[in-house]
Amino acid sequence: MSAETSLRPTRSVPPRRRRGFRSHVRRAIHSWQLYVLLAPAVIYVVIFKYWPMYGAQIAFRDYNPALGFAGSPWVGLDNFVRFVNSFQFERLIANTLTVNALGLLIAFPVPIILALVVNQLQSERFKKFTQTVLYSPSFISVVVVVGMIFLLFSPRSGIVNNAIVAFGGDPVFFMGSPEWFRPLYIGSDIWQTAGFSMIVYLAALTAIDPALHEAARVDGASKLQRIRHIDIPGIMPVITILFILAIGNLFNLGFEKVLLMQTDLNLPTSEVIQTYVYKVGLQQAQFSYSAAIGLFNSLINLVLLLTFNWVAKRAGQSTLW
User: What is the pLDDT of residue 201?
Assistant: First the structure.
C-alpha cells in the first residue's frame, strides 16, 4: 500500500449521520418556542381533519350506532353501487355539475375584471370607496341574502315582478320555477362573493413593479394595452392557482344557500349532491349510504384537482405543488 493511500482519510458515515441527528435535536430544543407556537394548529388539524377520516369507514359498512364503527357489518362497495344505480344519480350529478360549471364560467372572471378596473382608478379616496362597496355584500349572512331574494322576486310584492307588471307583463313565480333557480343562485353568488374575491387579485396587482407601467406609458401604451401586457401576465400565476382550486371544488356547492333557496317546485334543478346527502343522512338516518355519497363526491373532486394540476404543470403554469 502506498503512502498516499495510507494517508488518505476514511469516511465514517454513521458518526456523521449521528452528529447530524444530534444537531437537529439540539436545534429543536433550542427553538422549542416555535414548536409550542405550532402545536395548537397541528393538534387542530389532527383532531378535526385527520381523526374524522376514521369514521369514513361507515361508507363501507351497514352502520348501526348501537354496534359502533368496528361492530357494524362490512358491506364493501354496496352503498356506492346503490347510489350509482339510483334513479337520482344522473339528476344529482347533472344539477351539481351544471350549477358549478356555469358558476365557474360566468362568476370566475368577474373578480378579475373588477380588480383590473379598480386598479386603474386614479383617485385613492374613490378607489377605497369602490372597494368597500364591492366587498361589503360578503359580510351579509347567507340566510339574509336568500331572504332578500324571496322578497325581491316575490310574485305579489316583489320589486322585480312589480316592474314586470308595470311594463305590461305577467308576474313570474321565480322561486317556484326550476328554470330560474340557476340564474338566481349564480347571480346572487356573484353579487355576494365577487367583491371579496377581488381583494386577492388586487393584492397580486400591487406586487407588479410600477416601473413596468412607467416604461409602457413612456412608450405610448394605452391603459388597455398595459392591462393586457403587464397586469394580466403579472397575476396569471394567481389566476391559475385559484382556477385549479375552483376545479377541485367543481362538485361542491354551497349547501346552506341551495337548501334555503330550495322549494318543492324547483327540486328538478335545485336538488344537488349536498342537499341529497343531508336529507338521506340526517332526515332518513341512512348514515352509511349518505357517507358513501359524500366520499364518492370527495373522490371525484380529488381526481379533478390532481388532473388539472397536472395539466397546468405540463403547460408550464403555476401549480399547487
Answer: 92
User: In the structure grid, which three cell numbers stand for residue 286, read together?
Assistant: 341512512
DSSP class of residue 265? S
Largest CA distance in the chain: 109
Can you name the CATH fold of 82-314? MetI-like fold (1.10.3720)
Residue 285 makes CB contacts below 8 A (sequence gap 6+) with: none
| Nearest-angstrom CA–CA distance, 273 and 279 | 10
Of 202, 217, 192, nearest to 139 by C-alpha is: 192
The pTM of this model reads 0.80
For 63-104, the DSSP string reads --TTTHHHHSPB-TTHHHHHHHTSTTHHHHHHHHHHHHHHHH
Q: Spell out the domain ranges in the chain.
A: 3-71, 82-314
CA distance 57 to 93: 23
Give per-residue burial for 241-261: e unless 16+ CB within 10 Å, then b: bbebebbbebbbbbeebbbbb
Give the DSSP letter of residue 203: H
C-alpha R_g of the chain:
28
pLDDT digits (tens, 9 = 90+) for 157-180: 889 989 998 888 888 899 888 899
The per-residue DSSP string of 287-304 comes to: HHHHHHHHHHHHHHHHHH
Give the number of other Cβ atoms within 10 Å of residue 282's Cβ. 11
First to last CA, the chain: 52
Cα-based torsion angle of the residue sequence 207, 211, 214, 220 in order, rounded to the nearest 10 degrees: -100
What the block records as the C-alpha cell of 282 is 340526517
Q: Where do we find the cell 364493501?
A: 76
Q: How many helices and strands in the chain, by DSSP H and E?
A: 18, 0
